[in-house]
Design a protein that fits this description.
By secondary structure, the chain is an alpha+beta fold. The chain has 4 domains: 86 residues, Uridine Diphospho-n-acetylenolpyruvylglucosamine Reductase, domain 2 (2-Layer Sandwich); 119 residues, Uridine Diphospho-n-acetylenolpyruvylglucosamine Reductase, domain 3, CATH 3.30.465; 119 residues, 2-Layer Sandwich (Alpha-Beta Plaits), CATH 3.30.70.2190; 88 residues, Alpha-Beta Plaits (2-Layer Sandwich), CATH 3.30.70. It contains 16 helices and 18 strands. It has a 7-stranded antiparallel sheet, with helices on both faces. α1 runs antiparallel to α2. Bound molecules: flavin-adenine dinucleotide (FAD) and zinc ion. Zinc ion binds next to β17. Flavin-adenine dinucleotide (FAD) binds next to β3, α4 and β10.
Length: 470
């Protein structure tokens, strides 16, 4: 029996895709990577995943796990050898159960994030992970990349939101670690090892996630700001004034919002005159557990003081849920608008907030000098010190010319990130995109330990080769 027949006998004929049917799985969301696969396999259960991995381990067939294929680092795309199988978890999309007394839910890896948020809401709870790809990314992909998004400031990233995992190891065993415990000191933390491992150690098939109370009221505002210093000062004021009720602080450069309103004319910036021309905008959100009136009073008092002190140049407070959604929509449309103007060079960096202004001003100036005419596309989760510091082509740059300078741009930006004590990946992961840059910035002992862990857990090297560690 050849390998494809063996796979068909495990998952069924209709769940082994080849040729044209496999194409969509062979390219990443940004269309930066294109690979070829032996077949796309769509298992429907943990046991089927385990049987596939056992077969692949025996036959030394590389396995590339894939969820919603929205990752931004090429982590879910096979290489072009045509030897690897893509293991799509999309059919494993059941919410297995919700325990409202324990505030936990058990979900399969292929559940789309938005469906998980909705299931939690239907049970009167909040599952807080929130990001622009939530309509198609999956819990498995969120876990494998330790995804962040717009609520990390208050609730943490995927690692903070997960209590237990079910994992198929690289040998095809099933680790049933779906514990819903907040405290469990029984040795090495394998859960946190698999979270963020980008499919290189095993296949995540299910998870036990933490749930939170739904906020009673939310206030959202768009702030117009003169400088990054003003934005970080405002973040400090919001932290002090709102405490744990501060659930969002997103930064956007003025040109990002102009890009959105040009690309999607039905969206508009709620400022005009001089405020609309300011260089920076921030989306501020407070979530209150008491009442609408209580939320509004706190919100207006902190904002009023900030405006009086000259920290905020102008502000628009959403007066309704629809207005609040429109403000968030502006923020969330930036990656889509950016995609429309052509391929860009993306940096997903983490910077200590205290050095944010120094980093942005210094790196902007160094890039302008080395690559005159490029366009800066800067936005991100300022509350977490996480910027999407992207570089796009200007009018006199072709896409090819920009991409031919990619390695030089990375080196310039990442060297500066490193110099201020930052990280070259805040939330998107390493994948293929930053694999070669990683050893340059990571502690050599830490790199060596990671290689040893990989060799121990995946001795045949079948799990997502060429990603993260190479
Ligand atoms: P995929 O792209 O399918 O896979 C991503 C990685 O996880 C790959 O290495 C893959 O091999 C591995 N993987 C997938 N499933 C499994 C599994 N079950 N077991 C083991 N490994 C697995 N990310 C953020 O953190 N914050 C953001 O704000 C954010 N915004 C985004 C906005 C847009 C418009 C887009 C397109 C992406 C954004 N992302 C963001 C990127 C983010 O990493 C993904 O959206 C998401 O977390 C990946 O989920 P996925 O199911 O699409 O994974
Ligand atoms: Zn992000």
């Amino acid at each position: 029996m050849d390998h494809l027949d063996a796979m068909r006998s495990i998952v069924g004929v209709s769940n082994v895709l080849t040729g044209a049917d496999a194409q969509a799985y062979e390219t990443d969301w940004r269309e930066r990577y294109r690979g070829r696969t032996l077949a796309v396999l769509r298992p429907g259960s943990t046991d089927e995943v385990a049987a596939i991995v056992r077969h692949c381990a025996q036959a030394a067939i590389p396995v590339v796990p894939q969820g919603g294929n929205t990752g931004l680092c090429g982590g879910a795309t096979p290489d072009d050898s045509g030897r690897a199988v893509v293991l799509s978890l999309q059919r494993m999309n059941r919410v297995r159960g919700i325990d409202t007394d324990n505030d936990t839910m058990e979900v399969e890896a292929g559940c789309v994030l938005q469906a998980v948020q909705q299931a939690a809401r239907d049970a009167g709870r909040l599952f807080p992970l929130s990001l622009a790809a939530e309509g198609s990314c999956t819990i498995g992909g969120n876990l494998a990349t330790n995804a962040g998004g717009t609520q990390v400031l208050r609730y943490g990233n995927m690692r903070d939101l997960t209590l237990g995992l079910e994992v198929v190891t690289a040998q095809g065993e099933v680790w049933r670690g779906l514990r819903g415990l907040r405290k469990d000191n029984t040795g090495y933390d394998l859960r946190d090892l698999f979270i963020g491992s980008e499919g290189t150690l095993g296949v995540i098939t299910a998870a036990t996630l933490k749930l939170y109370p739904l906020p009673v009221a939310r206030c959202t505002a768009l702030l117009a700001l003169d400088s990054i210093e003003a934005a970080t000062a405002m973040l400090g004021r919001a932290r002090a004034g709102f405490g744990a009720a501060l659930t969002g602080f997103e930064l956007m450069a003025g040109n990002c919002l102009q890009m959105v309103t040009r690309r999607f004319p039905q969206q508009r910036l709620p400022f005009d005159g001089a405020s609309a021309e300011l260089p920076w905008f921030a989306l501020l959100e407070l979530s209150d557990s008491e009442s609408e009136a209580h939320a509004r009073e706190r919100f207006e008092s902190v904002l009023g003081e900030a405006i009086e002190a000259g920290c905020v140049a102008d502000a628009v407070i959403a007066g309704s849920l629809a207005q609040s959604q429109a403000l968030w929509h502006l923020r969330e449309s930036i990656p889509l608008a950016e995609k429309e103007i052509g391929k860009s060079i993306k940096h997903d960096v983490s910077i200590p907030i205290s050095r944010m202004a120094e980093f942005v001003e210094g790196t902007d100036a160094a890039l302008d000098e080395a690559f005159p005419g490029i366009v800066h596309v800067i936005f991100g989760h300022l509350g977490d010190g996480n910027l999407h510091y992207n570089v796009a082509r200007g009018a006199d740059w072709s896409e090819d010319r920009l991409l031919s300078r990619q390695q030089d741009v990375y080196a310039l930006v990442h060297d500066r990130v490193h110099a201020v004590g930052g990280s070259i990946s805040a939330e998107h992961g390493i994948g293929q995109l930053k694999r070669d840059a990683l050893p340059r910035y990571k502690d050599p002992v830490e790199m060596a330990l990671m290689h040893r862990i990989k060799a121990t857990l995946d001795p045949r090297g079948i799990m997502n080769p060429g990603k993260l560690l190479g």
